[in-house]
Specification:
alpha+beta, twelve-stranded antiparallel beta barrel, 407 residues, Tubby-like_C, 10 helices, 24% helix, Tubby Protein, Chain A, globular, two-stranded antiparallel sheet
Amino acid sequence: MSFTSFVWEIGNISNKSSRKRHRLRRGQAHINPEASFSSSPGSPGSSTVQIEQRKWANLPPELLLDIIQRVEQREQCWPGRRDVVACASVCRSWREITKDIVKTPELCGFLTFPISLKQPGPRDTPIQCFIRRERATSTFRLYMGLSPALSGELSKLLLAAKRVRRATGTDFVISLVGDDFSRSSNKYVGKLRSNFLGTKFNIFDSQPSTDSTVCSSCELCRKTHPGKVAPRVTTSNYNTAKISYELNILRTRGPRRMQCIMNSIPVSAIEEGGTAPTPTAFTNCLDEHSSPLLDSAGRRPQVGSTSRSMQNVPLVLKNKAPRWHEQLQCWCLNFKGRVTVASVKNFQLVAAVEPSENVTITEQENVILQFGKIGKDIFTMDYCYPLSAFQAFAICLSSFDTKPVCE
């Protein structure tokens, strides 16, 4: 059997298992695929899929490790990278080994599992994406790739957002899929909320930036309410960033001026040897009694002892100042060919640091997020460490809201 046929067979096994699980009682969750079937050969739940999965699960760990490493190294981008996801869907042993092999985007530069969208991007080369705006439905879709013309139907949908108008502002609800924007869905990942004028925004994440805080919060909840039945798990929102656009009362010429305060990312993350918060899995242990990671002011609540991260100064991003081009009579920024249409929405974000902070000049000039227009409803988005795809997408969504007092 060739290596391509081997990977194809793995994908077929994963698909058979998924279809079998959907035929079971609705709402029942399983940790591993083989747990859905009875272990008795003569029981009604036994099937060929069960036998095949046990055959793959019983492979020697050394051979299994080598197989998954070959699959991971062979597929560098989507849609081929779905073979790596198929390996993680075979059974529990395959999933654990795949999770150990697949590195975070910061280290490998790839987006593999959904949790990769909440992890910081690579430090050296930015991840290039594009956003498609659909005016009729007020939706915005983030795709993996250079542009629709180059990617075509092979583009990988990463995130989708829907704009919801309110009396006091606007909400952008962000989801993993393009047809489900309910906050009660497990596809919900966060939202962006603006004020009435569209000059100030708050980014709310559906989970905190570190798993340890979640675990401690759940432990606190169990100690506070002993002997009680666990309440229904509800979706929580954590204020992880604030975006503000400078008012242009004098109507002076120039692009928009913006500032982003990343409450969930300390400024030490961009210092030499610094690290940014990196969640390892989507958490669902929070309930209505557990305290949030960040309050409405963007600060961590005190639970017992003072957390070390409370003492860190949050990272502040500012738009890179453009230069005035005399011949073209316009403001210009070097987007390195990724932006082709002049627009007030175009921007580049760099770190705004104090001279006392231990940040090199190179890091201060490094473009962390770049957003620009290339078509009527097509925009490019390139981001890198320490921002995640979710945070970068939310910041770019703030540029789509109407801002008559900033232009």
